[in-house]
């Protein structure tokens, strides 16, 4: 069966998926959870094969770290499912209830988007997070994972799909695309697929955007910053920047650039360099930075670099305004943080930095759907339309207008026989 044919079938089944009740969807999540635990040895065996193939293929260590799916990753996705089950139903929320005239009432009600295509990087846990979020939000999902974890993804998908069907969800609620050649076919399904969420490199996301008529939501780069203000608590700053850079370097919310206020550069940079270098981080900076610490020299045009590894760009800025200007110009509008004890400076930074996540005195690594209490995420959006930041349940629903009348016709209002009497109703 072609991807186009399957997408058409999913489109027809999407109203059935949208109509499922909260209890039915939560029961399906519980079935998925139990199935993953029951079949964990199969999952680990498949993942072992993927990891061995990756090592033989000389894939970078930063990528291999993402490929691994062991007990810790399993515990993480299980916790995500448990969290998802506790969240209120995103479907059927009355967002507006207005009387237009006597007997004529308008409702705006939340509904699933429909059929969502998600093309994601080689992280097996992402497949679990995405599929369970789509189940909870009442969406059908087409899933395409990275080829580096093909065996793990196939194993996980089969376990999740079988559990969902046994729980009573529609036959076409989930579908896995495996061949790279099928991506272009998916991009042509603009009559059946309502939304695409690509996760990967900037070039890949741009390719998706330029080759489909389907609306696209997502982010390309994760060039995140930590700005250490002149009023920063130095110990806090050292802990935060170390965590933001080293806790998980391959993630899109890992910090790639540290900006330091020139008033504290002489006292802070040497301590920061020692701390980061002891953690295995290679520092890069322009000529001004090299006056304070030993590091590899870089040009100003390189501050847009996303390393996804133990490398950090460093820049000294005159003040908070220069830091903000740098972030808005060189960043990817993902997540950026300020370290300061000055509340006014913190609020100014948070208002002026144009990013999906703006933090004060905490690591950029908190930019995550699970850590936000969303029960994981399908991705992080840096756009400003529909959803922004970690996309959880609320980002996977839209709304429709329902109008209830009693023989009302527009001609009566156009002729002046009737007039609107707008009234907000609870």
Class computed from helices, strands and strand pairing: alpha/beta
Unreliable spans: none
The spatial strand order of the largest sheet comes to 10-9-11-8-7-12-13
Biggest β-sheet description: 7 strands, parallel
Number of helices: 15
Q: For the record, what is the CATH homologous superfamily label of the largest domain?
A: Aldehyde Dehydrogenase, Chain A, domain 1
What's the structural domain tally? 2
Number of strands: 17
User: What's the helical proportion of residues?
Assistant: 40-55%
CATH topology heading of the largest domain? Aldehyde Dehydrogenase, Chain A, domain 1
CATH architecture of the largest domain: 3-Layer(aba) Sandwich
Question: How would you describe the overall organization of this protein?
Answer:
This protein has 15 helices and 17 strands. It has 426 residues and is of the alpha/beta class. It folds into 2 domains: 3-217 and 391-401, Aldehyde Dehydrogenase, Chain A, domain 1 (3-Layer(aba) Sandwich), CATH 3.40.605; 224-366, Aldehyde Dehydrogenase, Chain A, domain 2 (3-Layer(aba) Sandwich), CATH 3.40.309. Strands 10-9-11-8-7-12-13 form a 7-stranded parallel sheet, sandwiched between helices. Helix 10 links the parallel strand 7 and strand 8 (255-261). It is globular. It starts with a helix and ends with a strand.
How are the SSEs ordered, and which strands pair?
Blueprint: H1 3-19, H2 22-38, H3 40-56, H4 61-67, H5 71-86, E1 94-101, E2 104-112, E3 115-119, H6 124-136, E4 140-144, H7 150-166, E5 174-176, H8 182-187, E6 195-198, H9 202-210, E7 224-228, H10 234-246, E8 255-261, H11 265-278, E9 282-285, H12 287-290, E10 296-297, E11 311-317, H13 320-330, E12 335-339, H14 343-352, E13 357-360, E14 380-381, E15 389-390, E16 397-404, H15 410-414, E17 423-424
Parallel strand pairs: 3-4, 3-6, 4-5, 7-8, 7-12, 8-11, 9-10, 9-11, 12-13
Antiparallel strand pairs: 1-2, 1-17, 2-16, 14-15
């Amino acid at each position: 069966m072609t991807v186009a044919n399957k997408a058409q079938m999913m489109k027809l089944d999407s109203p059935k998926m949208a109509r499922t009740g909260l209890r039915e969807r939560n029961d399906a999540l519980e079935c998925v959870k139990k199935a993953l635990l029951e079949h964990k040895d199969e999952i680990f065996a498949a993942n072992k094969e993927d990891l061995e193939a990756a090592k033989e293929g000389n894939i970078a260590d930063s990528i291999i770290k993402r490929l691994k799916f062991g007990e810790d990753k399993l515990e993480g996705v299980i916790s995500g499912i448990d969290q998802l089950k506790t969240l209120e139903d995103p479907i059927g929320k009355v967002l507006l209830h207005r009387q237009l005239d006597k007997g004529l009432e308008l409702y705006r009600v939340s509904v699933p988007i429909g059929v969502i295509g998600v093309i994601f990087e080689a992280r097996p846990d992402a497949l679990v997070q995405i599929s369970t979020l789509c189940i909870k939000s009442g969406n059908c999902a087409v899933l395409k994972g990275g080829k580096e974890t093909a065996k793990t993804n196939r194993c996980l998908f089969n376990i999740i799909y079988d559990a969902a069907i046994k729980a009573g969800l529609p036959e076409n609620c989930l579908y896995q695309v495996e061949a790279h050649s099928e991506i272009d076919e998916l991009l042509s399904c603009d009559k059946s697929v309502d939304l695409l969420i690509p996760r990967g490199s900037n070039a890949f996301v741009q390719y998706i955007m330029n080759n489909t008529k389907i609306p696209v939501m997502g982010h390309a780069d994760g060039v995140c910053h930590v700005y250490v203000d002149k009023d920063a608590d130095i110990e806090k700053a050292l802990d935060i920047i170390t965590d933001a850079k080293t806790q998980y370097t391959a993630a899109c919310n890992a910090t790639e650039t540290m900006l330091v206020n020139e008033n504290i550069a002489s006292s802070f940079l040497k301590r920061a360099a020692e701390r980061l270098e002891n953690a295995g981080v290679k520092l890069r900076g322009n000529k001004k930075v090299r006056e304070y610490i030993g590091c590899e020299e870089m040009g100003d045009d390189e501050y847009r670099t996303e390393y996804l590894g133990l490398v950090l760009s460093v820049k000294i800025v005159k003040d908070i305004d220069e830091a903000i200007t740098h972030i808005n110009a060189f960043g990817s509008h993902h997540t950026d943080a300020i370290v300061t004890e000055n509340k006014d400076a913190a609020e100014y930074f948070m208002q002026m930095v144009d990013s999906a996540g703006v933090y004060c005195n905490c690591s950029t690594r908190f930019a995550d759907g699970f850590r936000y209490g969303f029960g994981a995420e399908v991705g992080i959006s840096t756009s400003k339309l529909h959803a922004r930041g970690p996309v959880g349940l609320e980002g996977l629903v839209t709304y429709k207008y329902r109008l209830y009348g009693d023989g009302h016709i527009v001609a009566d209002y156009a002729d002046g026989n009737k007039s609107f009497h707008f009234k907000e109703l609870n």
